[in-house]
Design goal:
Layout: E1 7-14, H1 17-24, E2 32-39, E3 58-64, H2 67-71, H3 73-90, E4 96-99, E5 103-106, E6 109-121, E7 124-134, H4 143-146, H5 152-156, H6 162-181, H7 186-193, E8 201-206, E9 209-218, E10 224-228, E11 231-235, E12 240-243
The structure holds biotin.
Biotin binds at residues 16-18, 39, 42-45, 48, 50, 59-61, 103, 113-115, 131-133.
């Protein structure tokens, strides 16, 4: 079998691996992975920042330029979450789940955040940037994050070799993307098996209105099947902001 060549760039320090890709997209090949020990300006969703001390956690982004994958863009963040779950489980972590559309949880705490950005020119998506931060060896969080975030170390009391984890995760992401390209949606079976929100009642903001929502399964088109006031509805990425236990 032909060995897959992983295109990788690694920085000791960079502003943000996702920003690097956006600045250099022209010279980067499809599925190039950019990682860093430290980001001086890492960002998360909803304008939040993503902070991590140097060499404590895994932070990387990859670029998708292949039109076949860009077309499947709604699958990319959930399948990256599935690849992360598979990798965390393969390193012995238990109770790993996926919080639709793109976080990975252990018990009730977040261990991985995923940020999908699409960059368009002339009304057409040119490329996607998927940025992933996995909390691996961080030993403590500040007061605010403490109740919401966890890491491999905090769950197992063991540190992990970040490079070994990275190699395994890149391999798992590439495998799932290959499957997506040939319309194999097995990743959804895993996303549903480990669906953190399944059967939970959560508050969500739909069209600026706060509603109590009962979550059901993730649909074939990656939308989330829910009940709002007892009525069945499919929610799409970006349509919903969750507030659990509020
Ligand atoms: C979130 O949960 O809000 C998404 C967090 C994404 C963080 C990663 S770390 C690597 C990449 N570079 C960034 O600046 N952000 C993403």
């Amino acid at each position: 079998m032909k060995k897959k060549i992983v295109k990788e760039i690694h920085f000791k320090s960079v502003d943000s691996t996702s920003t690097y890709i956006k600045k250099h997209y022209e010279e980067l090949e499809n599925l190039t992975f950019v990682s860093a020990d430290y980001q001086s300006n890492g960002h998360g969703r909803m304008g939040r920042s993503w902070k991590s001390k140097s060499g404590e956690n895994l932070m990387f982004s990859f670029i998708v330029k292949d039109p076949l994958l860009i077309k499947k863009f709604s699958s990319i963040s959930i399948s990256s979450a599935v690849a992360t779950l598979i990798t965390l489980k393969s390193f012995g972590l238990e109770n790993v789940t996926i919080k639709w559309p793109n976080d990975v949880y252990v018990n009730d705490k977040k261990i991985t955040g995923i940020l999908l950005e699409s960059i368009s020119l002339d009304n057409e998506i040119k490329f996607l940037v998927i940025g992933i931060g996995v909390n691996l060896n961080v030993k403590s969080f500040d007061e605010i994050l403490k109740t919401k975030a966890t890491s491999y170390y905090l769950e197992t009391n063991k540190t992990i070799d970040i490079n070994m984890f990275k190699t395994e995760l890149f391999k798992n992401i590439l495998n799932i993307l290959e499957q997506i390209k040939i319309n194999n949606d097995d990743y959804l079976v895993i996303a549903n098996k480990y669906n953190y929100l399944y059967n939970k009642e959560v508050y969500g903001e739909i069209n600026n209105e706060k509603k109590l929502i009962k979550v059901l399964e993730i649909n074939k088109d990656n939308s989330l099947h829910v009940l709002v006031d007892g009525v069945s509805k499919d929610l799409y990425y970006g349509e919903l902001t969750f507030h659990i236990n509020e």
